[in-house]
Amino acid sequence: MEEIRLEASAVTSASDIQAAIDALGEDGGRVVLPAIDLVVDRGIEMRSSVELVGQGRDTVLHQAPGRVYPLSGYHNYGMLDVPLMYTDGLEPGMTVAIRDDAHGGFFETFARITWIEGTWVGIDRGVHSDYHADQNPVLVTAFPLVFGLGVENVVLSGLTLDGHRANQPAGIGACRGAAVYFLQSHGVTITDVVAADFAGEGVGYQMCSQVHLRDCCATGNAGNGFHPGAGSTGSSYENCVAEGNGAAGFFFCVRANHISVRGSTFVGNAGPGISVGTRDSYNLVEGCVIRANEGPGILFRETRRPVEAQSCRVRHCTVEGNARSRGMGQIVIAGDAHDLAFEHNTVIGEADRERVGVAVAPSATSVWLSDNEVRGCFPSVVADDASLALADPVGECGVEAVTLSHYRHLGR
Q1: Structural domain range at position 87
Q2: Residue 393 domain-assigned (yes or no)
């Protein structure tokens, strides 16, 4: 494997890191970063078969203060440019987001600037929506600090990413970005990466397969800590921490399937510790600590057939002192969720906050509760007999149970 080791004196900007990655060519290789404390004005884009390796807490990338550039008027879907009121401070190669007050999700645009002529700015991909003048369209210098689009066999290791969210007048939406972000990618390994204080989510990816995180931390971000989204399948998390984030510690998004979360900690987040929703199925949560979150420790969101969550297992977890400001219990199962197994968990309430241990909606079915220790909660369990299963209804789940057929919706 070709390896490029950068000296600290040779790394003065994000462009220096990008140039090293691009120099590896189609065969890929490894870029080793030194101990640096670097402010970056653009995201670092990964290529297939590339490893980006830092020195842990000694390799720190700081996001530069953000700026907002209003569009000068209406602009239409698919165009590879945008008209702005002014362009001071923008340069080709910078990564930016284009958004407005009306659109979110995948209608937000994330792109790289390719040229600037007067007040027109070229971008490397077409805008994802019509942007109307009365909806306050803007270009913002918000971007993932490290990202990959349609890449395979990528490794990130030993990086500390500081988003400086107080210096960001606008962030980037979860579908288009996070401090670490991947889209339509396969075979991504992320180890010993800290994503902190980002104006958005910590680590997020959409329509990806075989993404594996180990020893990672998402802390103090504006959105969710970890967010596997949009059909992402066959992922694993080991010994990861999500603490003090502005939404859920871990957010299973739409059709996040065959994911294993082990030995991880979700504490002090402003939403649930772990949130499970639309078509999130065949997932395993094992040996985790979920404590002192403002929402329920584990929440199965209000989803209805045919897009309900199903076939998930939670075992050997400690769920303690959650639902501090909202939510009726430590574990809450809403909507039409079914075929769920909770076994050998310790569920603990707080004396000064009367919360249910496990709350199961009447519409949920086939929920198996086995050998769980519930204490300090009142009542321990709220559930109709018809909602509870007499035997374990969940078969094989988690990343270990994934097969090739489970990737068909991703075109793999």
Answers
A1: 68-140
A2: no
